[in-house]
Design brief:
Elements: H1 2-7, E1 18-23, H2 31-45, H3 52-58, H4 64-76, E2 81-86, H5 91-109
Parallel strand pairs: 1-2
Helix pairs in contact: 2-3, 4-5
Length: 110
Amino acid sequence: ITDYAAAAGRDPESMDTVCLNYLHVVEDGDEETIKEKQREVFRNLYSPAVGVEFAERHCLFGSVEEILATIERYREIGFDEVILGPAARDDDALRRQHDLLSDRILPRVQ
């Protein structure tokens, strides 16, 4: 990103680097149960042409600890902000995701 900014005549240091990433927080369970619940959510959100594999590669996936570790890696490589987009199929599930983000993720990344 900084190379493209410099090539365009922009000072890379004057720009914020922001990452948007989707996630579905699963409260408890073993690693495979958590990931299967996440796969199910993303399977219902992404078209078959995109596939759940896309989510596994490009979304925040895994336990709360794995999600937090990935967010930390984003910070280590230089992102100024990480925007978290909760993945849910309906209003109730979205409210639950907001609660889980507020309780389990956000207090540990601010």
